[in-house]
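Consider the following input, taken from an annotated entry for dolichyl-phosphate-mannose--protein mannosyltransferase (Cyprinus carpio).
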Amino acid sequence: MVLSEPYWDHHIPLPKLGPLQSRLVTAFVALVCFINSYDGDFVFDDSEAIINNKDLNPDTPLSNIWKNDFWGSNLSSNSSHKSYRPLTVLTFRINYLLAGGLHPIGFHVLNVALHCVISVLMIDVFAILIGGLVHDGRGAKLSLSPKASFLAALFFASHPVHTESVSRVGIRDSAGCLCGDKKFSVLWIFGSILLCAVAMLCKEQGITVLIGGLVRSGLLMRLALLFLGGSFLLYARWRIMGTGPPSFTEVDNPASFAENVILRIVNYNYYYSLNAWLLLCPWWLCFDWSMGCVPLIKSATDWRIVWPLLLWCCLMGLVYQALCSQDSNKRRTLTFGLVLLVIPFLPASNLFFRVGFVIAERVLYLSSAGYCLILAYAVGFCSCHWKKHKVSATLTLLCVNVARSAQRSQQWRSEQSLFASALSVCPLNAKVHYNVGKNLADRGNQSAAVKYYREAVRLHPKYVHAMNNLGNILKERNELKEAEVLLSAAVNIQPDFAAAWMNLGIVQNSLKKFDKAEQSYWNAIRFRKKYPDCYYNLGRLYADLNRSIDALNAWRNATMLKPDHSLAWNNMVILLDNTGNLAQAELIGKEALKILPKDHTIMFSLANVLGKQEKYKESEGFFLNALKINPNVASCHGNLAVLYHRWGKLDLAKRHYELSLRLDPSAPGTKENYNMLKRKLELRQRTVG
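Applying the prediction step yields:
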């Protein structure tokens, strides 16, 4: 078939730029949209994908990225999300190495740069899909649709729905289209399959890049090879995942847990219509759409059922035009636009397996290319028939996209602005209120956090994480009764919630319910075997009950699981000191300082032990080292003064008593010791006189 220039291309109200100029403009537009996120923080799930992901650490064997999922969990684990993206994790690891640590600016800059490069490459992709590329007499490539492909690439570069993919570090989506010369080649097909495999190791949707093979001739042979290659890749991935899908809960994707098939189908289609609306009007964007953000349609009288019907009417209209139009260029453009819109979305459609979200803007990254292609055709078609205001309308559409993208990427710079922006979009989403509350609590505003945690629990009465965090704040505010009720409810709802069991134990200990507290601590340890903080709190309980040996064993377990657990080490030294086991206390203190050589609290406790053993010189050294690290601790000055007092260095004792009283005039015992010293000094002066 001889390809010709689409008649509507020259009607598009854009200047006809050369290949280099159009690429520079597209890259610049992509940069302007998202550059303000370059120095943003790690936000939302970045804490799990980046900060807490041990696979990024250079000390972790590189082979681990091929065994673990995107979040660093073993693929065979029941808790794994089965998101196998080793090449994406490898890019994170390279970022870590180049930046010398977890500095978000390097991650953000690479994301923005990738989007700019992809946007530029989309010019050629769109040119091939619309009208193909031809070569002049010198072999140089010529586009038959320079304006249309340029406009579609500008729409793609500036689409606000890309903000999550570009401005969020823990996601690295990439899109590509495989192109070569005009002749069909088996070698080219195998190259396509190889690149598809690489794409799948970056993102699950990589399998859909095989649609690029549809552009060429030799259709039946090509389809057969691509089908076999794609099937092999899907089978390989299924084996890597452990031949089982990930497990999700009802709050992640409520439609997939609906009572019957009809309800599921209706709600899935409603989700599709919402995704289409985000492409068409990307104003209501949210970092999370779960937990009641999109209530289920449960009745035929629900007015929202109109939206999936409208979506399918529009799709059927486009399909009809793509199949039956007399214009071959129109058929080609709309066909590839629909294919690029629909195929990459299929993995997120719930048709083949349950997904762990209601709506996820990130999965629209590649699908948006199909939408942008159809939108560019619509602009060209309208420009042919309505000459008035076509320039201003097109520029306005582009400018609105750029402004919205810049605004949205600004919101993704910090968790505070990101979570706050979601309150107006998804006011029924319990997770939004939870995250706003958690961010406020992390910044020290616990009173405000309580309000949002309460709202999260009201919206979703089984939200155990909100109950746990709210219970913690109430515990710190000494509202112990309500804290106990909340934490008890949390562990009843989710019996294996180890953190809630531990926090319940702390509350019960404060309420003097010692037997219940001990049982809660052991429940926490039963569900999380390696739980050093729980062993530490269990030790505190035993210390309160004067069960010294049990307390020491619990704290020793804490330090074995977490060798730098300062509080556990220090409590062991103090307990042994209080029970008169000074030699053992000295050994434990020195063992702790080998692991924590700059811990001034352990130095202070060890110095007290050595002082009681009359090892004054060694004790003095630890006191002075502790004060060098933290010079404003009144008790340290006071105890050093007592040491000098016993040692007979009365002038030094006087100086440190005075320093202690200056820092804390009400320090217990210090004033009495100081007065005793002054009387001793006065007596000495009178004796000398």
